[in-house]
Amino acid sequence: MSAPLRHYNFSAGPAVLPESVLEEAGRNLMSLGDTGVGIMEHSHRGKPFVAIIERAEALIRKIANVPDGYSVLFLQGGASLQFAMCPMNFLPDGGTADYLMTGSWSKKAGKEAKLFGKVHTACSSEATNFDRIPSPAETTYSDDPAYVHFTSNNTIFGTQFPTEPTPPGDAFLVCDASSDIFSRPVDVSKYGLLYAGAQKNLGPSGVTLAILRNDLLERKCREVPAMLDYKTYVEGQSLYNTPPTFGIYVLMLVLEWIEKEGGLSAIGERNEAKATKLYDYLDSSKLFKPTAAKGSRSLMNVCFVTGNEETDAAFIKYADERGLKTLKGHRSVGGMRASLYNAFPPAGVDKLIEAMQEFESTHAA
Amino acid sequence: MSAPLRHYNFSAGPAVLPESVLEEAGRNLMSLGDTGVGIMEHSHRGKPFVAIIERAEALIRKIANVPDGYSVLFLQGGASLQFAMCPMNFLPDGGTADYLMTGSWSKKAGKEAKLFGKVHTACSSEATNFDRIPSPAETTYSDDPAYVHFTSNNTIFGTQFPTEPTPPGDAFLVCDASSDIFSRPVDVSKYGLLYAGAQKNLGPSGVTLAILRNDLLERKCREVPAMLDYKTYVEGQSLYNTPPTFGIYVLMLVLEWIEKEGGLSAIGERNEAKATKLYDYLDSSKLFKPTAAKGSRSLMNVCFVTGNEETDAAFIKYADERGLKTLKGHRSVGGMRASLYNAFPPAGVDKLIEAMQEFESTHAA
C-alpha cells in the first residue's frame, strides 16, 4: 500500500498530528500490541489502558517539569467547559475574579464566570479588535480577586502572552492554554490551574488536559456535581467514569513524540524558527501584512491580510490548489491564518512563503 | 501484513466494535478519503467533518425512526455528566423528580439531582442487590414530578427494563440508555430525553448521544453555563465548541454498520438470540447460575456466578487462556459478566458456552 498523499494542514484546530503518531495509532486499532483487543475496545479499568493513562501522566510531569503538589487531570468538554468549571469551583458568591480580555475566548470565559460571582476586567484590547496583549502597566487588578484568568494564546486574533501575568496577593493564576500548551517551556509553578483542549498541540479533540495545584481544592466554594468537581478527577485519577480512552492514548503518543523531539526546549526553538521565518517574510511583503501588533505576535497562529477581501479569497484559493489547506482566517479578523502548531512541519512554512512570493509577483498591491 | 489475532472481548465498556469499522477508521487516519488530511486533523468547521456529523445525525433519525420535533445531540462527559445536566436544566428549585432505582447508575443519577431539587424514589430493588426490575405495580410516582428517570439497562447487575415505564401527568420520561441504546427497536416518541454514552453499542468512549424533545427547552428552569445547556447544542447543531470529532466519525461508521446489518429489528433479533442461548445454558448448568431474576434479565450483560469465589476466579482464568477476555464481573455482584453488545459476534457466545461446559465437566459443583 502506498502512503496516502498528505497536504499541509494549517487548521487552527483540530490540527495536524505527527505522522508517526497516526501510524502507531493505526497499528493498534485492531489489537493494542498483542492483547487481541483494539485500543478503542479496552476497558478503562483494565491493565492495558491504566498503563496508558499512567504513562500519559508521567510524560506530562516529565516534559513540563510539573512540581510536586500538582495533579494532572484528563477531562472532557474542552476549554469551554473549563470556562464554567473553574468559577463553579473557585469563585464564591459575591467574590470577584479578574479576567484579562484578549480575545473571544477570554470574553466567553468571563461570561460563564458571571453566573457565579463578579468579573473584573483587568485589561482589554477589544477597542483595537484584540490586535495585541495589553502590557502589565495597562493591567489593573481588583482588590482581592479569587483568581486571575488569562488566555495565553489567542487563536482567532493571533496574539500570545510573551510571559505570564503576575496575580496580586493570594489570588492564583488560571490559564486557558488551549492553543499554545507544550509549544515552549512552561513554568507550571506559576499557575494554580492550567487547562487546554488537546486538539491543537496534544492530540485529537475530546480530551482536556488540566494541571491543578492540589491545595486549591480547599478553596472549593460550593457543592457541584461530581463531573464538574476537580476533586473527583484528582481522587479518581481521572477514572471516576469512562474517560475518552482513545483520545488519551493518542495524547500519550504525542507526548512520546514531544519527548523524542527533544522536549519543550527543542519544540519551542523549532516553533519560534517557523513563526519568525513567516513573520519576517510578512514584514517584508508589499502585499501581505500581519494583523497582530509586534510584541504580541503568536508563534502558533500567524494572521495576515492583503487589505482586500477579494485578493484574500484569491490567495486562499491559490494556496489551496497547491496543497496548502485551511488558510482562511476567522471571520472576526478576516484574511488568512496559518496555524503552526508543534506537529506542523517546517517545510510547510517554506511552501507557504514560496506560494505567497509567487502570488505577490502576479498580484502586486 | 497478516490480520492481527482478535480475542473475544466481553468488556462491559468500552466494548468490542465491528471489525469493518476499525478497518475503515484505520484507512482514514492519514487521509480522510482523498482530502490529504487525516480524520482526526480536520477542522470541525470544514466541509468534510460537517458532512460526517450531519450523516451521523441523519442515520440516527433513520435507524431509530426519530419523530419530528426531536433534536439529536452529540455531547461529552458520558452519562455521568447527564446525571447532572438533566436536573440542572429541568428540575426546578423545590420541584421533584422521580427516579426508578435499579442499580448503581440510577443511584448516582438521583444523587446529582438532589443538588437541584427533590428526588422521589419511585421504586427500588436495592434490598435484593438490584437483582430485578420492579414491576409497574411496585412503582409509586410522586404527585407532580418534573420528570421520571430510569436506567433502561443495568450494566453492573445485568438487568433490563422489558418496556418503558409510563410517567404520570405532564412529567416526561428521561432514560439513561448507555448500555442498551440501539440494541433493539426503540419508540423515541415515548421519551422526553434519551441519553447514552457511546462506548457500548455506538462507538468509542468520549461521545454522548442525546435525543431531546424540543418543546422541553421551554421548561428550562435556571440559568446554566453554555456547555451545560441543551439549548446550546440544539441551536449550534452540537458545534458550539470543538466536539470529539473522531468519536463522532466512528459513531457514524457504527451507524452505517447497523443499517447494513438490517437496522434495529435485525440487530435486536440477533442480540436476543445471543443472550437466550447463554441464559438457556446457564439455566441448565449445574455449576453456573445467572444472578438476575427471570423477567428482568439483560440481553446486553449476562451476569452469573458459581457460588464460590475461588471457582469463579478459576473459571475467569480458564476462559482468559482460551481467548475469552474480560469476563470478570463487577465487584458489586462478583462472579462473571458476559457483555454481548451489538458488535459482539454470535460465535463468541458459542465459544463461551463450550468453555463453560468443559470447565463444568472437570469442576462439577
TrEMBL record, chains A, B:
Group of enzyme by EC: transferase
InterPro entries: Aminotrans_V_dom (IPR000192), Aminotrans_V_PyrdxlP_BS (IPR020578), Pser_aminoTfrase (IPR022278), PyrdxlP-dep_Trfase (IPR015424), PyrdxlP-dep_Trfase_major (IPR015421), PyrdxlP-dep_Trfase_small (IPR015422)
Claim: Membrane is one of the keywords in the record: no
Domain of life: Bacteria
Catalytic activity: O-phospho-L-serine + 2-oxoglutarate = 3-phosphooxypyruvate + L-glutamate; 4-(phosphooxy)-L-threonine + 2-oxoglutarate = (R)-3-hydroxy-2-oxo-4-phosphooxybutanoate + L-glutamate
BP terms from Gene Ontology: L-serine biosynthetic process; pyridoxine biosynthetic process
Main subcellular location of this protein, as a coarse class: cytoplasm
Textual note on the cofactor: Binds 1 pyridoxal phosphate per subunit.
Places the protein is found: Cytoplasm
Subunit relationships: Homodimer.
Family membership noted in the UniProt record: Belongs to the class-V pyridoxal-phosphate-dependent aminotransferase family. SerC subfamily.
Protein name (Swiss-Prot/TrEMBL): Phosphoserine aminotransferase
Species this protein is from: Alienimonas californiensis
Gene this protein is translated from: serC
